[in-house]
Design goal:
The complex is a heterodimer of chains A (356) and B (324). Chain A is α+β, with helices and mostly antiparallel strands and 356 residues long. Chain A contains 9 helices and 18 strands. Helices cover 25% and strands 31% of the residues of chain A. A 6-stranded mixed beta sheet of chain A has the order 6-7-8-3-9-10, sandwiched between helices. Chain A has a 5-stranded antiparallel beta sheet with strand order 13-17-14-15-16, with no helix packed on it. Chain A is elongated and about 75 Å long. Classes of the chains: A alpha+beta (356), B mainly alpha (324). At the A-B interface, strand 6 and helix 2 of A face helix 9 and helix 10 of B.
Chain lengths: 356, 324
Amino acid sequence: MAVVETRKLSKRFSDEVMAVDAIDLRSTDGEFLVLLGPSGCGKTTLLRMIGGLEPPTSGEILIGDRLVNHLPPRARQIAMVFQSYALYPHMTVYNNIAFPLKAQKVDKAALKLKVDWAALILGIDGLLDRKPRQLSGGQRQRVALARALVREPNVFLLDEPLSNLDAQRRASARDELQQFQRDIGTTTIYVTHDQIEAMGMGDRIVVIEQGRIRQIGTPREIYEEPADTYVATFVGSPPMNLIPDGGDLVGFRPESFFPLDDDGRSSGDDLVRFTLTDAREEYLGSEKLVYGEVNGVKAVARMATNAPLSVRDGGSAPFGVHKQDLRIFDRESGLRRQLARAAQVEPAPVSGAPGR
Amino acid sequence: MSATTTSGGAAVGAASGGERFFLEREKVLGPLMLLPAVIYIVALVGFPLVLAVLYAFTNVTVGDPRIDGTGDFVGLDNFRAVLNDNVFRKALRNTIGFTVISQIIVIILANILSLVLAADFKGKRLVRFLILLPWTTPIALGVLGWFWLLDSVYSPIDYALRRLDLLGPQTPLGPARNMYWLGETELARFAVLLVHIWRTLPLATVILLAGLTSIPQDIKDAANVDGAGFWRQLFYIRLPLLLPIMAVASLFSIVFTFTDLTVSLVLTRGGPVNDTQVLATWAYFKGIQGGSLAQGAAIALFLLPVLIAIAIAMLRLARRAGAD
């Protein structure tokens, strides 16, 4: 197993575009590290540089504390699973899985043993004689994983391996993939633009935007303690509400934003009150979203379908947020203010709060 | 073409209401657009083919090309005469030999060339253009160029060899001062082969190049990560993936070479002593110059089985590609 580290790693494709901009990153051993970002943010380029498929413009890559910048992919003890799976279309499943071993000149008996072992782990032992085109998307993904697994690499690099699956299959594949990674305990770097995949599978998430790291943290840290407004709005659906207040932006999650009784019974010391105007309800089955505006800025609240709320379309209603759920960002830089600052927020920080 | 468009325009102008979209109906437009191709094929391919088959069983000549009645039909006489003819057998052997040997060489060279051209280097576009040039040159002109290059007295190749002290008195290739490329059996055959290779290599290369670039980057990346070196990638990934397109390139080249008339006709006129005679030239000499239309047709018909086999192979390949 191994630790993957990058030091000031950069990639410049043309004179203007920095695809990856001085990224410092260090995984722990056996970690499931997710690179999360919108398409074009440089996360795949970062992964390809770690894998040796793209030469970095500057910076260092270390795998297992060994500098690998000048090693070809095959010498890096890594295995990669591609978005398209990149199975060899003219080979049977068996030969696909055996290909890396043949390249290593593993002798025939040992090779068969290993292929069977990998196929068994991924539950594709019945498909070994098929060609890739005779397989479903999920089966192809397992073959790609088996081909990666069979080399017993130090690091797995996965590039959006679930994006070619349909939504239903994706949910179960997510669970299987995570289970698989826990079982074999190999350091895994997983690229995705899907925050649900990132939140559900990652030990830690690296949020990347325009070639730079915005935040590294556990899914809980990323969600609950976003480092800046970018992370706050990129992660979470619907995203965090951000209400301007002087030089600050007051942020809170839609599910922390709840309706107050008209009689103000639920008011208390730790409550910050807002008025949601121009409200509109969206029914989503298990939950509902209430859209509206606070101080002229769009805001949304999420609550259970049966939550008591009586607001006409276009009407206003009092809403509240517990003080500990507020996150304060600097309006200029978008950066999160010190945690201590959040506790100092006055009960009614927003000028438009109802003056009861 | 112009006739159909004019009548189509008239139809649109005259039509009203529901008839306005008459031309947009697939059942109308489809056949209309196919028509020129069908007319062309029937008139210039189908009709001559039927005529050739008919002639092969008659005794028509250039002087008397009419089939007057059942008396003109001679059954298999032409084929018997042709098969008993030494020159014909030589031509058949040469045709097959030239085709097989040149295409083996072409497919090997085309693979190498396409790999080179697929790499990224300065002036890649210029090199690609230059390589394609022989293909764009009219065959007869290209062959004429070779005819001069291989001239028995003024050949620049001979001149170069002489300057390098390889040709002339007391040299490895001497003592003659010329190679007589087109006058010696082996050299003449070599020359014909060379021109065939020169002519078909560009297209094969370009087809393979297209095939190479169509291999997904992910597959190449995967092979890299999986630890395959250059040769393993070549023999286990690239060539197997190229196989279908290589077959297409080969079949094209085989058709061109197998049926070729120009190279042997212009370069050697089948000589020396019929040693570079091929089916096409022999059919021409026998049927047109010799006047025996019927025998010429019979000779040309020997091209048919091979061409039919190739047509079937092509259609199969196309269907397989469609099924994948």
